[in-house]
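step: validate -> pass
step: tokenize input -> pass
step: predict -> running
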Amino acid sequence: MSPYLHCKPAGRLLELNFLDVITGLTSIDIRVSARTGTLKIVVPDSWGVDISELDRSRIAVITFKANAAPIDKHPVVRVRGNIGSGVLQALGPNRRERRLTP
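step: predict -> pass
step: emit ->
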């Protein structure tokens, strides 16, 4: 079985920040179960985020500001599961985080 995280934000903000992660993995699976709550995923510019297998209701809010596919041989974060009235944010680094990155 490949490495995965199971996230249940349940009315809260759950942030997964991969900016300082160094890994040899090609993919990271995230299984989300969110009737309510926010799952925020922050990845480096070279990583990808795939939400093609995510089930979501019509009232779920998706903010996608990341690459859909990774650049070169960097990892892809695959988000699966379901979101009800919750929020999913897939983001790259913000200005401050870009300045802090060597």
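step: describe -> The mean pLDDT is 91.
step: cleanup -> pass
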